[in-house]
Amino acid sequence: MQTYKDKTELIEAIKKTYRFYDNEFDGIKEDEKNRDAPGIDKTPSQNISYQLGWTGLLLRWESDEKGGIEVKTPTSEYKWNNLKGLYQSFYDQYGSYHLAEQRELLQKQVNEIIEWIESLDHETLFTPEQRQWATTPAKWPVWKWVHINTVAPFKNFRTQLRKWKKETGTD
Q: Is the pLDDT of residue 171 over 80?
């Protein structure tokens, strides 16, 4: 897994991978957003809904903990052994939005994540057990949670979108 020396590197990686990811939606028409493609497990709408769900959870975990609310990850309704149900809840929550609205909402959430990272000191971001919601048996620091919910899927899902475009002839 990629690592970062400081929050500036992490923020730059988020900005860069998000920009490339978002650009993959250019040229996808509204009436194509729910179109399946062979060998691709998510439609474009599901793809971005997944991202909206996870980036939203990341922001909610932090907000809840700061507000004194006990955080249950991934959510109080879904446990780690029911991620399929969680993903479906993302598709249900965001799938009715127009693709342009989904893109705007994700841009907003990415900006909020960047602002949040900018507000953290190095220790909070890079030392394990600095947030209750990030304290797991794996002892991941906050940056790793941010990475696996932003940079990593922005890269991986960009590839899926490219394959979707090729399979559907929309590229």
A: no
What the block records as the tokens of 60 is 């909610």
**What number is the average pLDDT over the span 123-152?**
92
The Cα 104–Cα 120 span in angstroms is: 25
Give the list of residues 6+ apart from residue 30 with CB closer than 8 angstroms, or none: 98, 99, 100
Given a contact cutoff of 8 angstroms between Cβ atoms, the answer to whether 37 and 109 are in contact is no
Distance CA 53, CA 8 (A): 24
CA pair distance 4, 119, nearest whole angstrom: 17
User: Confidence band (pLDDT; 50, 70, 90) for 33?
Assistant: very high
Q: What angle do CA 53, 59, 62 make, to 5 degrees?
A: 135
CA distance linking residue 160 with residue 75, whole number of Å: 26
Residue 37 pairs in a beta bridge with 40
| Measured torsion, CA atoms of residues 168, 30, 154, 23, in degrees rounded to the nearest 10 | 90
SS3 62: helix
The yes-or-no verdict on residue 142 having pLDDT over 90 is yes
Per-residue tokens: 84 = 């399929």
Rounded to two decimals, what is the model's pTM?
0.95
Residue 38, C-beta contacts closer than 8 angstroms, at least 6 positions apart: 167
